[in-house]
UniProtKB/TrEMBL annotation:
Residues 2-231 form the ABC transporter domain. It comes from Chryseobacterium cucumeris. GO terms for molecular function: ATP binding. SMART domains: AAA. InterPro entries: AAA+_ATPase, ABC_transporter-like_ATP-bd, ABC_transporter-like_CS, ABC_transporter_ATP-binding, DrrA1/2-like_C, P-loop_NTPase. This is ATP-binding cassette domain-containing protein. Keywords: ATP-binding, Nodulation, Nucleotide-binding, Transport. Belongs to the ABC transporter superfamily. Gene3D superfamilies: P-loop containing nucleotide triphosphate hydrolases (3.40.50.300). SUPFAM superfamilies: P-loop containing nucleoside triphosphate hydrolases.
Length: 303
């Protein structure tokens, strides 16, 4: 859906580098997580896609075509700094932004009704934005962003301002859009959302891409061959022999269950063969790092 090749962007006459040889490929119909610490270059890249600013060099293609003004109608962008008019009624804003994206007023109205019903906000149509809470205003911003059925949806911190119930509601709507063919770029600091929603991820730090790929593959890359194990009916003598052979930590013994973490570079089958001599194996799980752990480790290693 989107290919960015060798993007470079600088500010202050080249003194500040925002993006340095940045390239990503966003598959059609996927949710692609764009991650990085504040100031890494994420917003600069999003602004280039939306043609708010231009890259110094490099190219972006959408659906095989070089990025051009005609793509604006195919893109929905929900910025982190929201941009609605506080003294305009919700209904007027919805129709206004729909028409800005090239929709007929009647089409914008019909599409708005569908979204207002989905999000249970029918009663807000004649309210001014200034009368709504932050979370309510966020829902309106989301509707404005998706109203024209964009092929590419860019969401910058879409869950900001939502309570857990409404955050989950918006998450479900985003996944539903993806399942119906929309390609989504998601920029967020909520790593649990990345794990739950994203198919692919790229991590930017200090203007450079340092990781990209499928979320599962990225997490696998950072694993440290650590396993979590729980045993019952443990033989103390056999367990002592086991401890002498393996590196064990986080050991606990509660309710006749012995639990511990183990670092192992050998075959998992060999560990299991040794474990069955020690006791009854109740659980044996490889510790795959969370995206939050990946994020922290990757940024620390490339600072």
């Amino acid at each position: 859906m989107l290919k960015a090749e060798h993007i470079k962007k600088t500010y202050n006459a080249g003194k500040k580098v925002a993006l340095d040889d940045f390239s990503i490929h966003v598959p059609k119909g996927s949710i692609y997580g764009l991650l990085g610490p504040n100031g890494a270059g994420k917003t600069s890249f999003i602004r280039i896609i939306n043609q708010i600013t231009q890259a110094d060099s490099g190219e972006i293609h959408i659906n095989g075509q070089k990025l051009n003004p005609g793509h604006i109608k195919d893109i929905g962008y929900m910025p982190e700094e929201r941009g609605l008019y506080k003294n305009m009624t919700v209904g007027d804003q919805i129709l206004y932004f729909g028409e800005l994206k090239g929709m007929k007023k009647s089409d914008a109205l019909n599409e708005a009704k569908k979204w207002f019903e989905k999000l249970n906000i029918d009663q807000w149509w004649k309210k001014k934005l200034s009368e709504l809470s932050k979370g309510m205003a966020q829902k309106i911003q989301f509707v404005v962003t998706v109203l024209h059925r964009p092929h590419l949806l860019i969401l910058d911190e879409p869950f900001s301002g939502f309570d857990p119930v409404n955050a989950n509601l918006i998450k479900d709507q985003i996944i539903d859009l993806k399942n119906n063919g929309t390609t989504i770029i998601l920029s967020t600091h909520r790593m649990e959302s990345v794990e739950e929603m994203c198919d692919y991820v790229a991590l930017i730090n200090n203007s450079k891409k340092i990781i990209d790929g499928r979320v599962f593959d990225v997490r696998e890359k950072f694993k440290k061959n650590i396993f979590g194990i729980t045993l019952s009916e443990v033989s103390n003598d056999h367990f002592e022999n086991f401890r002498n052979k393996y590196e064990i930590f986080n050991l606990s013994n509660e309710n006749n269950l012995v639990s511990f973490d183990l670092k192992n570079e050998e075959s998992q089958n060999n560990v299991l063969l040794d474990l069955v001599q020690v006791g009854k194996v109740r659980s044996f799980d490889e510790r795959i790092p969370s995206m939050n752990e990946v994020f922290i480790n990757a940024v620390s290693n490339h600072s």
